[in-house]
Amino acid sequence: MRTAVVQTAEPALVDALTGYTIALTAARRREEFGAALERRGARIVYAPAIQIVPLADDSELRAATERCLDERPEIVVATTGIGFRGWMDTAETWGLGEPLIGVLRGAIIVSRGPKASGAIRATGLREQWSPESESSAEVLSHLLAAGVAGKRVVVQLHGEPLPALVDGLRDGGAEVIELPVYRWVPPEDAAPLARLVEAVSVGGVDAVAFTSAPAALSFLEAAEQMHLLPAVCKALRGPVVAAAVGPVTAAPLECADIPYISPTRFRLGALVREIVEQLPARLGQRLPLAGHDVEIRGHAVLVDGGLVALPASSMALLRALATRPGHVVSRRELLNLTGATDEHAVEVAVGRLRTALGDARMIRTVVKRGYRLDCEPSAPGR
To answer: What is the DSSP string of 127-170?
Structure first.
């Protein structure tokens, strides 16, 4: 018997990320990031892995700023627009704005990209050079070629260290002043992060997005402290997709041998587009079942374009059957999956799944053997 299935007017109207759960570890711009993904249908879990130290209260930033005033650097490297603006605005609140601008006028200013250049020009200053690649590596190559030996260089950081740039300048003979704008510390409330670590370890989310290296490192450290790092790494190498805004952010993931997706342009909007493109392609599974077009997504299924939300137990059951489409899955295998105590419980679970999908023919009973999805098997052994 066929039961009703909630359907959209057209299959194409179903959003690309409908049925997927994405966790965000960002502390800054997380609402903007989450809203962009929600508009594409995703379910969002917020679990900040870090928090930002307020600039006005940051003693390290003030000490570095006063050092710039006292020692007058020859070169200043601005790495981000928001970081440079934050530095200028905070210096103004300390009554150091005009003296700092005066010092920077006497320095060679290098900008890592157009946003940093815009922030520099907004103060009335002007950058002398900026790389087309927007990469720290090209900045380092340019400065080393020009010669930095014996020179004092300020490197404006943005929430995360830049060891390759800083160490490279020091190896070239420069005296480097690191300017820690927007410093990260662990989150004040660690409970959401702990819940996310547990969810990832059992495949309870479809993707985890990182927008800074400290957040990625904090996430992995939390997993290690909870003795769940092996399970988390295994999940991130399998059913859970890691997404990073760029290679600097992804460095802790690479150290843990965790694959990730990343846009070619290291921007938040580009990361959203990358997730929209990659997540359904990597995790979605489309099958013809009993004359219906069925697409299995993270926590839901599309049946002929209509969205069917399923509980976790039913999704697990469907995924087990879809591992080898068209092949028989024994009752014993399903018994172990569902945690039931007898085969009757498996029959009940299969019955509920049939009802939710809307057509009992999608799941066939194979007498004395088990169940299979009603589609052509993908390999011999039916």
So the answer is: -SB--TT--HHHHHHHHHHH--TT-EEEEEEESS--HHHHHHHH
